[in-house]
User: Fold this.
Amino acid sequence: MDAVEELDCENGFGQKINGYACWMQHCACATPAAKLRRVLCCLYSKGRFLGFKRGQRAQHENTALIQLENVNSKEETTYYEGKRVAYLFRAPTAKKGSNIRCMWGRITRPHGNSGVVRAKFRHNLPPSAMGSTVRVMMYPSNI
Assistant:
């Protein structure tokens, strides 16, 4: 617990753990018990699905572009290479008692210089998912 430090409260994010931020949705001014719970359950950070890799005329649907939250340079993306990505969505019919489904992928490499990464999913993401939120899991660990 000695590697935990506070982040600014005004942006509404949680704490920084071993140099990487825990992007929970709760404010950093919560009670000590809530802070401890937040530190122990930081399993993912957020990202946004921007679209597909493309050239001037053709797009390649097998590679998705994801903007990671609070990652603004190519050097900051190296921590996330190899991490798993989950796209959660609601299906019209329920299977196994739930209508929430998940599509899994993996971050492969950076894309450009502004914190965008490329990810390959087991099944290509649908175009209707553009602009939606994905979860970038903090595993597998490469430190």
